[in-house]
Amino acid sequence: KADTKAIQAIHTHVITHNPRVHVSFDDHSTWHLVIKQVTEEDKGPYMCQINTDPMISQMGHLEVQRPPEIDDAMSSGDVVATEGDRAVLKCVATGHPMPSVTWVREDAATIMVSDGLITKPG
Question: Which parts of the chain span the membrane according to its record (predicted)?
Fold first, then answer.
């Protein structure tokens, strides 16, 4: 991994003590660094290098995506408000890339959202 300067493997010998990482090759010119069960900690730059003089290298970047989720414990459920008062509904969504949250009424009435505030037209 290039950002930590840690050597992952030399030829097929894996230096890191991580059972999820191994090296494979198709022939003597095509090598693969394989990371099983990728986690967010695996994201970042990686470098393949050839020990020539001068050294030749190729950088690559691993981006790890997480599916969108709604945190039920942090989001509001049913909200009761008195007419004329303000009601706040909260939806806490996570994921990578960050998910886009859309508010929809059950009766499909139009909802206007401006600066995170929901208003009903009219």
Answer: none
